Amino acid sequence: MKKIVLYICIALVMYEGNTQIAYYNQFPTLNLHHVLDDKLDNISFAFSMRLVHSDYTGPLVRLRRVSDNAEQDFCAGQNDIVDIDLINTWRGGANVFVVTWYDQSGLGRNATQTDTNRQPRFFPDVTIPHFQGDGTNDFLIIGTSIQVLTNNGVNGTVLGVMRATTKSQHSFGVLTNRDRWSTHINWSDNRMYFDPGICCNSSRSIANGARVNVWDHYSFMKTDTNVIIRVKGVELLNGAHTTGRCTVNTNFSICWANGNGVNNFSTTSFSELIMYNTHISATFYEGIEDNAVEFWGL
């Protein structure tokens, strides 16, 4: 029998040197099932501005208010989306920046940035809340190697709700010269690239100029032999990958491919990012794609 879970988020808030306990979002969820409830096998992390797993009871994001540098955690409201009304009340018109994007997978692989000069800006959009880097030095980092997040630099799947921009940029992953597991969403030529291994494989990109500044669901998959790109549930690239696996042991980042691409920070917008350390089955990825498209109205 399905159960109704009472989500109570209790956060410790650091403000002017004092630790306070903030109680909020103490509401029963209206949804009995969430998209990842039966899809945690081989998961690497699960980030979203909505609740994606029923057993997760923590905050979705920690923000910093630029007016006084106060920080606070924010959970999902009754609509499963991070509580925008509460964020707007707290920020009082000030800009806010992401300190931590919390991992809902149960593995605790949060994406963080403690340097206030490198935190991506959060936008409290009531339709699709999201964050975006400035393209100069902003990024979040996960303290886990790409070799763990993938199958030793070979297989892996990333599914996300993102908004493409045009820039010579690395949107997420790792990169040291040609040795990489990363994406460009989009590069300056308005093509979207996926490099799950040594660059540059012949099958690696699609034309994506029509999707600039448009929210979409993107899926990137590396099988034993092929590289696959899907957009909103439609497969647009499936070709052989012949140039070799990613061999670097760098930690994964978002808004940049962690490594030596120091001029290639991104302006891609993010609202959801889920990763598996294998090429997941069609049942898994189609279910996640369909759910995200419907939930976010893509």
Description:
This protein has a single domain, classed as Jelly Rolls. It has three helices and 21 strands. The chain has helices at residues 84-91, 146-149, 282-296; strands spanning 6-15, 18-28, 43-48, 61-65, 71-74, 96-101, 111-112, 121-123, 130-132, 140-145, 156-163, 172-176, 179-184, 191-196, 205-207, 215-222, 226-231, 234-240, 251-254, 258-259, 269-276. The strands form two sheets. It has a 19-stranded mixed beta sheet that branches. A two-stranded antiparallel sheet has the order 1-2. The radius of gyration is 18 Å and the shape is globular. The two termini are 32 Å apart. The model is unreliable at 1-7 and 11-29 (pLDDT under 50).
Reading off the top of the CATH hierarchy, the class is best stated as Mainly Beta
The rounded Rg comes to 18 Å
Proportion of beta-strand residues: 35-45%
Taking all residues together, what is the mean pLDDT?
92
What global shape is seen?
Answer: globular
Instruction: Please give the domain count.
Output: 1
How many separate helices? Answer: 3
The beta-strand count equals 21
Fraction of helical residues: under 10%
Predict the CATH topology.
Jelly Rolls
Q: What separation lies between the terminal Cα atoms?
A: 32 Å
Low-confidence stretches: 1-7, 11-29
Query: Secondary-structure element sequence?
Result: EEEEEHEEEEEHEEEEEEEEEEEH
CATH architecture designation: Sandwich
What class would the helix/strand composition place it in?
mainly beta
